[in-house]
Structures are given as C-alpha cells and as structure tokens.
Amino acid sequence: MGGGGSALRVCADHRGGINWLSLSPDGQRLLTGSEDGTARLWSTADGTCCALLQGHESYVTFCQLEDEAAFTCSADCTIRKWDVLTGQCLQVFRGHTSIVNRILVADNQLFSGSYDRTARAWSVDRGQVAREFRGHRNCVLTLAYAGAPCVEEAVAGGLLVTGSTDSTAKVWQVASGCCHQTLRGHTGAVLCLVLDAPGRTAFTGSTDATVRAWDILSGQQLRVFREHQGSVICLELVNQHVYSGSADRTVKCWLADTGERVRTFTAHRHSVSALKYHAGTLFTGSGDARARAFDAQSGALRRVFRGHAFVINCIQVHGQVLYTASHDGALRLWDVRGLPPPRAAAPKRSLSRLFSNKVGCAAAAAPLQPA
After folding, report:
1. What residues form DSSP beta bridges with 121?
2. How far is the first Cα of the chain from the last one, in angstroms, to the nearest whole number?
3. Confidence of residue 367 (pLDDT cuts 50, 70, 90)
4. Rounded Cα–Cα distance for residues 24 and 228 (Å)
5. Do the record's keywords include Chaperone (predicted)?
6. Which residue has the higher pLDDT, 47 or 256?
7. Given a cut of 90, is residue 150 above it in pLDDT?
C-alpha cells in the first residue's frame, strides 16, 4: 500500500460545509455548493477560485457544472443558473415549495427533485416549469435521465427516473408527465440511482441495504444484490460492474448482468459516502474524513488521503489530481501520480449520477481523532 497522500492545495474559502462538487465536461472548472449559501467556481489548472456565486437564501444542496453555465439548487426552494465567466445569476427557477435537493441537466432540459414530493422539468432558457411529475408519497432524492435513443416511439421524449424516501422509484414520460412505471421492491428509502449506458436498466440503492436492477420500460425487477449490512449510499457503474458504497463501511463490486459479488473493498472506518472510478482505480470518500484509492481489479488499498476533519461528501478526478469536498468546508487537491497503472484499457467515462445523502451522512460529520 502506498503512503498517505499529501494535499497539493487546500481551498478553505467556504464558511460552511461543501455538499456537492461538480466537474465541467471540458475539465477546466469545478463547482462547489455549500452550507454557507454560496457556490464557488474553481480552476482545475491551479485550484484558484474564479467566481463567487451569491444569491441563494439558504444552503446549497447540489450543483451541476456545464461548460457555459452553472446550476445550483437550494433549501430556499429555488434553482439558479449562473454565467461561468462572470459569476452573474442568469435565471432563477421558482416553483418548488420545499428544499430542492437534486438537479440534472440533460438534452437541453433541467430536471429537479424536491422534498415537496415532486420532480419537475424546466425550460432552461425561460426558467419556467415545463412539466410536473406528481405521484411520490415522500421526498424525491435522486434523478436519472434516459434519452430518446434507448426507448421506443411511445416515450420518444425520453424517460426521467426518480428515487424517493417512499421506498419506490418511478419512471416518467418526460413529454407527457405521466408515470410510465413504478418500481416497487425496496423496503427503505431509495438513496442513489444510476442507469446503464443504453439507458434501459436502472440500478437503485436503498436504506434496506440492497441494490436492485430494473427494466425501466417494463418495470420488472431483474435482480437483487444482497450482502451489504447497512444503507447503500452511493453507486458507480463502469464496464458492466456496479460499485456500491455503504454505511457498513465497505464498497462491493458486482457483475451488473448477474448480481454476483466480485469483491469487497474494506479499510474504511465509517460509512462510504462517495465513489469515483478512474482509469483502473476506485476512489472512495468516507465519513472517517479520508479518501482512499483502491486497485479496482484486485481490491488492494493503494493510498490513503488524510487531512479533512469531517465526512467527505463528494469526489472528482481530473488528470492526475483528485478533488475532495468535505463537510469541513474545504476543497482539497491531491496528487495521484505514482498509483499503479490500470491492468486493462482505461474505461469510457462513467455514466453514473451519484447522490450523496445529506441526512444519511450527517452522523458521520463529527470530529475525528488522528490516526
């Protein structure tokens, strides 16, 4: 195992915990959303803060960065669109009546999920609600979108998949707003959700300690992944392998097609709160305030990154740098050079959409003793 990594840079400008970290498609910028009610844009070239995004009236729950615009959502019930060059707020999306905890920009559409039990589709240009998706009996925690190529003509406008604390996931026809399927089987809140590359199979993780695979067109439950001993908090899907991070302090790797468990990644001292696969390495973030790098094929622990004081809520990797965002308010940059090279060709970029459960990880946000 490699030694503990030292941070290249510590960005401590936020005055509250960082809830989410997003990397732009071109890899040039990062966006952080914080408990202090602001978001910040950062350069991946040198880690400097490029812009301070101010305007929300409560904490920022989630954010997504595109090449030309940034999007944030907040406990103030709004979503905001920002200019990435000037930091100016371009649009405020109003309509939700409770905390907006997740957004997703895809196919020139903006989707959102809220504690008000609804998901919504918005016109990005006009800032108006184009469609409301009503049917969940509790808050909508996570979102995924399947574009038109993967579905037949009847749902040619694409499908939105939502996961809720009501123990279900729902599949919605975006064009009509109608519920296409309700995915029933979980006995606890659906905390995380990911679609495969064709967009027809959904994988959901829950507080019931299972991961489940579903055909989103038929609504059929395809298989159940049972071995975790705690809530499944985050998922990553790469090369037909599903990686699941859990409150039981492990990550498990499964064959997506069969549900067979391939390996278990241990060494965490608290819940696994974030996952990112990159070039043969699985990076994890944990409630023990450490990030770790594992050889994805063997499961061997290669490096531990120490320095944060609270739970790591989100991680990103770009080039030879690992970025970690924590409830301690810091964004840390780590040098990942020197990790063993991947044993196979680098995979295509993961299509997963992760969800960092704010409520589920809150218990992990406690001061830690030095190792």
Report:
1. 111, 131
2. 16
3. very low
4. 33
5. no
6. 256
7. no
- The residue assigned the tokens 């969800």 is 355
**Burial class for 313, CB neighbours closer than 10 Å (0-12, 13-18, 19+):** buried
Q: How many CA atoms lie within 13 A of 200 on its CB side?
A: 11
Q: Is the pTM of this model over 0.70?
A: yes
- Distance, CA of 54 to CA of 89 (rounded, Å): 8
Buried residues in 316-349 as b, exposed as e (16+ CB within 10 A): bbbeebbbbbbbbbbbbbbbbeebeeeeeeebee
Position 261: which residue type? R
Secondary structure element (H or E) that encloses residue 359, with its range: helix 358-361
pLDDT at 261 over 90: yes
Dihedral sign (CA 335, 242, 246, 2): negative
Residues 277-322: tens digit of each pLDDT: 999 999 999 999 999 999 999 999 999 999 999 999 999 999 999 9
Separation of alpha carbons 291 and 308, rounded Å: 9
Q: How far is CA 184 from CA 142, 177, 327, in A?
A: 16, 20, 33
Task: Report pLDDT for 152.
Answer: 58
Residue identified by tokens 């964004």 is 331
**Count of all residues that appear for the chain in the document:** 371
Q: By CB neighbour count within 10 A (0-12 exposed, 13-18 middle, 19+ buried), where does 188 fall?
A: middle
Alpha carbon distances (Å) from 183 to 37, 168, 276, 320, 326: 34, 6, 26, 39, 33
SS3 144: strand
Q: Which residues of 274-303 are buried (b: 16+ CB within 10 A; e: fewer)?
A: bbbbbebbbbbbbbbbbbbbbbbbebebbb
Which string of DSSP letters, residue by residue, matches 214-280?
EETTT--EEEEEE--SS-EEEEEEETTEEEEEETTS-EEEEETTT--EEEEE---SS-EEEEEEETT
| Element of type H or E holding 361 | helix 358-361
Give 195-238 pLDDT, tens digit per residue.
Answer: 998 889 999 999 999 999 999 999 999 999 999 999 999 999 99
Residue 148: DSSP 8-state: G
Nearest of 226, 227, 228, 224 to residue 214 by alpha carbon: 224
Provide the 10 A C-beta neighbour count for residue 12.
10
